[in-house]
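Researcher: Please predict.
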Amino acid sequence: MVKVPGALDEAGQPMHEDGVGTIPGLYFAGLDFALTRKSGTIPAVAEEAHHLVAHIVKRRVDSRSRTPGVDREVM
């Protein structure tokens, strides 16, 4: 079970949009109806994983472009 403050609603369900948690850096895959109607099934997890990885990569690239004075090769 997830025990991160603010990650779950009052009913104990993950708070997210398309698998991207409301807490930065927290992601969910395999939830019913998270991204498509087939979410929550084993075959859908691979598709959701691709979606979440793309989000993580975009977030990382965006944060690198906003960080002044950071060596881009190190990140």
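Model: The first strand starts at residue 16 and ends at 17.
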